[in-house]
Amino acid sequence: MSKLCVVALVVLLTACASVKKVESGNRAVGDRLTVDIAGNWNHLDYPGIKPAQIWTMEGLTVDEFLIYSGVKDGQAMHPGNPVGSQKKDIVFRRSMQIEEVVAMFEGVLTRDGSTFKLLKLEPYPFGGGKGFRFEYERTRKLDNVQQRGLGFGAVDRGELFALVYQAPRLTFFPRHKERVEAIAKSAVIKTLP
């Protein structure tokens, strides 16, 4: 019964979402982040996803590309999301170490009862400075789909910038992994005056 409720919620959210095609080329995401886009990405906008933008190549129930641009100290991650709304808000803090930022993403991705296993975490250049890269496995509670995920991020001037991509591990994740890595390599975080 609870699976049916979650499916109904996903359908309802998708119905409330606006969808627009993301044109290829250099694109600004927020005030300070730019990325080079190639491919047929779609940007979905629906309640409960802020402060992220969510893009998809295959459709929301298949793959998700979460883009965080300039998350401020004390800002809640997806505070209006009805999935896991009974739980305490997960908040970004500028003082977080890399491991704590990744743990924050784990919290965001498991609010619905899904499981998360960190596979790799390493320093990695992102946005023109020092950053990090992580890989993970997630088992989505809704349908037990085994997903692989890849994330990149950096904290610049106290703000979080990150890209997190996840998709079913056997077909869709390998299909778009290189494309996501190219987007991450192209990321530029603009400095403030």
Given helix and strand content, the structural type is: alpha+beta
CATH fold call: Protein Transport Mog1p, Chain A
Per DSSP E runs of 2 or more residues, the count of β-strands stands at 13
Number of helices: 3
**Name of the CATH homologous superfamily:** Mog1/PsbP, alpha/beta/alpha sandwich
Strand order of the largest sheet: 1-4-5-6-12-11-10-9
Shape category: globular
H/E topology pattern: HEEEEEEEEHEEEEHE
* Tally of domains: 1
Largest sheet: 8 strands, antiparallel
Helix amount: 10-25%
* Through-space gap between termini: 54 Å
- Rg on CA atoms, Å: 16 Å
Proportion of strand residues: 35-45%
Rounded mean pLDDT is: 87
Tell me the CATH architecture.
3-Layer(aba) Sandwich
Quaternary organisation of the protein chains? single chain
Q: What is the CATH level 1 assignment?
A: Alpha Beta
* Sequence stretches where pLDDT stays below 50 over 5 or more residues: 1-16
